[in-house]
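Give me the fold.
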Amino acid sequence: MKKMRVSFVLLILVISITYFTNGCGPSYGERQTKNEEERKELVQENEEKEKRVISLLANKHNAVYFPPEGLGPTAFTYEFQEFFKIHSQRAFVFKGYLEDIEQTENGIIVEFLCPLGENYFVDKKA
C-alpha cells in the first residue's frame, strides 16, 4: 500500500513537472496572430506570383495594362476611348472579372468588370 502511495505521488510529480515545463501550448491569441501572419504571407506570395505571370505575359505580347495608372474610379468614358485609341494596335492585359462572352457577326465581344478604385464593389458571382 505504501509503495502504491509513493508511486502515485511520484506519478503526480512527473505529470506536474511535465505540465509546467511544456505548458499548455500557445494561447488562442497567439494562434490567431500566427494564422493571420501566415495568411498575409500567402496573400503576398500569391500577389507577387500574379505580378510575375502578368509581367511575363505583357512582355511577351508587348501588352498595355488596363486600367492605366492614374485612372481613378470616377473616370469618364472619354478617357477610356482615348486610352484605347492611343493603344489600339497593342494587346491589353486586363485585370478584372469576366461577365460574359458573346459571338456576334462582327466578332467576339467580351464583357468584364474591371475595378478602378478601392471602393469598387464586386458581388459573390463576380
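The chain has three helices and four strands.
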